[in-house]
Design a protein that fits this description.
The complex is a heterodimer of chains A (about 325) and B (about 450). With about 325 residues, chain A is α+β, with helices and mostly antiparallel strands. Chain A is built from 7 helices and 16 strands. In chain A, the strands form 5 sheets. Chain A has a 5-stranded mixed β-sheet with strand order 2-1-5-3-4, with helices on both faces. In chain A, strands 13-12-11-14 form a 4-stranded antiparallel β-sheet. A 3-stranded antiparallel β-sheet of chain A has the order 6-7-10. Chain B is an alpha/beta fold and about 450 residues long. Chain B is globular. The chains are: A alpha+beta (about 325), B alpha/beta (about 450).
Chain lengths: ~325, ~450
Amino acid sequence: MPKVIIDGFEIEVPAGTTILNAARQIGGDLVPPAMCYYSKLKDSGGKCRTCLVKVTKGSNTDPRPMPKLVASCRTVVADGMEVANITSPEVLDARKGVVEFLLINHPLDCPVCDQAGECDLQDLAFEHGSPKTRYEFERRTFEPIDIGDKIKLHMNRCIMCFRCVFLADQLTPERLHGIMNRGDHAEISTYIEKAVDNDFSGNMIDVCPVGALTDRTFRFTSRVWFTNPVLAHRQCNTCCGKTILWMKGDEVLRVSARTTFYGEVEEFICNTCRFEKKNAADWIMEGPADISRHSVIAQNHSHTMQVLKNGVPQYDDSQKPTPKVKSEIE
Amino acid sequence: MPQKIFLEHTGKADLTQIEHYLKFGGYSSVAKALNTLTPEEVVAEVKKSGLRGRGGAGFSTGMKWSFLDKKSGNPAYLVCNADESEPGTFKDRYLMEFNPHMLLEGMIVSAYALAANTAYIYIRGEYWYLIDILEKAIAQAHAKGFLGKNILGKPYSLEIYVHPGAGAYICGEETALLESLEGKRGNPRIKPPFPAVYGLYGCPTVVNNVETLAAVPWIINNGSAAYATIGIGASTGTKLISACGNVKKRGVYEIELGLPVEEFIFSDEYCGGMANGKKLKACVPGGSSVPVLPAHLLLKTEKGEPRLLTYESLADGGFKTGSMLGSGGFIVYDHEQCMVRNTWNFTRFYRHESCGQCSPCREGTGWMEKILYKIETGKGNMADIDLLWDIQRRIEGNTICPLGDAAAWPVASAIRHFRHEFEWHVTNPAEATKPGAVYNGNLLSVV
């Protein structure tokens, strides 16, 4: 198995693992942020360029460094490879640039955006962005459109990660939407505003890293940090039926799929579970969900709550990678 | 007389007719390769000739061919990149229009060398009239037995198809070209894997420029040694240069690599000097993507040696004082032309042509265009120039395909060499925005 050193930490990973996934196995601050890569979606990644890293040594057989920064989500490790992420000023500068590029046309409408609090771009901008924008021109705008009766598309907020396109390609029987136009006028759209209508289309809301695709049944209902995420399941013939309910009191405001530590959906859920089952009685609740986020939503009180099973705290911390903080690496 | 390969017989007869082309010894390399050489020998011959890709990158053609994955068991493809869309470059158009059989002959020999039985010419959509010319030439070659089943009675078959693009510059990038050829959106693929391993329909593929392929017949006919004697050092053979801008005689010229730039611009055999009695201010020597050079750095390198039209000499001094041979799109500017406006114009092009796949190029090209427009229209300030520099620096090298670099380099070089002119636009907006305004400030670099 190839051994790779990332920011001084060595790890042995199976052949074919990407640098990003190797870094995720180490965990902590040295994990490059990823806005477009999604492990569940084949061919995703390589587009947003936030995960750029510097390969300072190619491999044991070919120790030459790679001439350019590479997208860690699409570059496979080689034995003896040495990678610099947060230890390379060049990488941090490039990342800062990418964040700036992603934000120049992104509306700063976080106060009215449903995604605020669980938005990857918000986290990214907080961690790698500048406090001030240098962009002084009018932003590119589109009209928000409904794609189907359950999903709202705010193209203004889209960062063109292509995740929803890959999802539609790979998960649903026929793809009804894609990319129109090109360059900075490219947009996600359905062909002639055709409704996206199939059993799993709702998952594009979960894979969207920003607030471009939002749940119309949840829009403007509540800020996410005022809701309590609860693990729940139900018998479903279409999907796994394992979800997170976002509750306020006894009310189920939103249903979403369960996510991993890096915010990726564990198992996709069907539209019936997501949009139709908004009664607490529809669900068997398991306990509070651990929302592993480093942004505002992780401050939710339920994060620290422990599940009681037979009176014993069952909160399982072992799944989480041991965090390596930046100061420790440097 | 300088050696000519591509344009030796053009003008003597209508070479689009196969009878005329055959009279000048056309298709003899097909017979020679199929009868006397193995595919490996053809590859070795091209490798020895030192032929380098004429599309812009200048990578060794023989080397590229030898990377082709022969073990995969999948059929190999040869794709001719005729999606010539770089502003300032129009050499392939000329070649295909007046000498289409030379391209076909080169493709047959190259496909034989790569053991490919299907080859495509991916042609730029705007070259609609060339599609007719090429398809007629293919039909004629078919009728004479140079294409189709069992070429010249040998157990080798090849079909060539012409596939028009829909008018996207990005489809000249080889992986975007392959996506487009497959019928998909022309977005560049993330490399590796390279086309030699995973190309058209997932099969090993070689993508070569028109001019590169058209040079192959001469190499097979005359031998790699004869080809290697043309040119200087690692820049062997001849190159088509499409000269445009404010010179007396614009057009496509075939030069032996190693011709001094000064001779190319000022001798009567080539461009014939600057038109309308104006002075040489700057030049983009290899198509809009390569860095622009001011006159003093164009004619002489930083070390004071004469600048030659070779891959090495034009790149001498790196991007600080050098440029690139690129695709041979030679754009000449006179002393009355505005570098800010020119840079804005180029950036507008790159903004329009960016595929929108990766963030630095999608957002950065648009941003640069807006800032340059602001400076050009006299509303800019000094901080904008530094901001431009910062943006191009963060695009370059951080994108999926070279379009990001191609958009960044003209901006970087224009600021590097003509910063005073940008500053003049900022400090004297009223004067600079007048129609026909000429910058007279720093004329040190005008020849």
